[in-house]
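Researcher: Please predict.
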Amino acid sequence: MKLTGKVWKYGANVDTDAVIPARYLNLSTPQELARHCMEGIDPEFAQKVQPGDIIVATTNFGCGSSREHAPLAIKGAGVSCVIAKTFARIFYRNAINIGLPILECPAAVEGSEAGQTLEIELETGRIRNLDTRQTFHAEPYPEFMMGIIRAGGLIEYTRVGG
């Protein structure tokens, strides 16, 4: 599975309230949530993000509450992948469960800037910055997790007999 998109870069400790402010937790569909994605730290994100774009952040991305709304908003906005040095554990789990690819790769975070284009091969963990021609390597997913992502989330994976 190959993903290509423009980088949206953020710093450390981007919490779930920054991803989707609590006042929108009464919304339930990814499309509704997407209209407010990243509103807590980047009010223009939802209007400017393009399908396939990639969020890159430093450490502890997705910290805060355990709401599944945060990865749903990101996926609903069309983001194809989130790359960070580290993720909050519950965010990591929620993202995989809804089929949002996320990769831990400190070198790719350091080697990319907002507006650059990354190409990601999820099966191998290869991340390539198409602007600088640098290549980075994240730990690839185990096959069962790749199956969940390919299926679009844990529910679909279970439905098709993953």
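Model: The mean pLDDT is 95.
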